[in-house]
Write a structure and sequence with these properties.
With about 190 residues, the protein is α/β, with parallel strands linked by helices. The chain has helices at about 10-30, 40-50, 115-120, 180-190, and strands at about 5-10, 60, 65, 70-75, 80, 85, 90-95, 100, 105, 110, 120-125, 125-130, 135, 140, 145, 150-155, 160, 165, 170.
């Protein structure tokens, strides 16, 4: 994750961001209970969430979550499937024809690792997804990542550490096997007779 310090917590800028988070959360909670076919209601709420109308041929299926909204920049013909999260304070840009699978998470902010700075600063950097990229279901994209044109991010992948996924490149996730404790093994065994 990017180590760029964005703002000091409890500063006036942080307070303004916090107020926007509350407003965006209230708006997305309304959006996420609208009937699927209420196109006018969704369009009106997206305009308030994003600060501008959705591009005409861009599709977002709810539920949709954002903590800020005003720093999400969507081009034409973007498709965002359901249950996606955009933590966009540092900016998220999706270029034309980007496809985003369900349950994808974009996170542009975090905290320093250093324990003394963790509760004092927010860190982060923008995320850029270039034209015609495809982000698979359940992927997580962290601050400072750029995903190149025509790239594919596999389902479940975590893309981090200021990576740049090259045009037509791929990023594949690797989930560790589940940890099974001795206690859970004992419970799953049939009783001895």
């Amino acid at each position: 994750m990017s180590s760029e310090l964005l703002m000091r917590i409890h500063s006036p800028e942080f307070q303004a961001m916090s107020e926007r988070v509350l407003a965006a959360t209230e708006l997305t909670s309304r959006l996420n209970v609208l009937p699927f076919d209420d196109a006018d209601g969704k369009a009106a709420l997206f305009e308030r969430i994003l600060g501008r109308p959705l591009p005409e041929r861009t599709t977002i299926y709810s539920p949709f979550f954002t903590d800020h909204g005003l720093n999400v920049d969507l081009a034409e013909r973007v498709f965002i499937n359901q249950n996606c999260t955009f933590l966009d304070f540092a900016g998220i840009r999706l270029a034309e024809r980007v496809m985003v699978g369900p349950k994808v998470t974009f996170i542009t902010v975090g905290h320093p690792v250093d324990v003394d700075e963790r509760r004092v600063w927010l860190t982060g950097a923008p995320i850029v997804v270039e034209e015609n990229a495809w982000i698979g279901a359940g992927a997580t994209i962290l601050p400072g990542v750029t995903i190149g044109r025509d790239a594919v991010i596999a389902a479940g992948a975590v893309v981090a550490d200021d990576e740049r996924i090259q045009p037509r490149g791929r990023a594949e996730g690797d989930r560790p096997p589940p940890v099974v404790s001795d206690a859970s093994r004992r419970r799953s065994r049939p009783p001895r007779r």
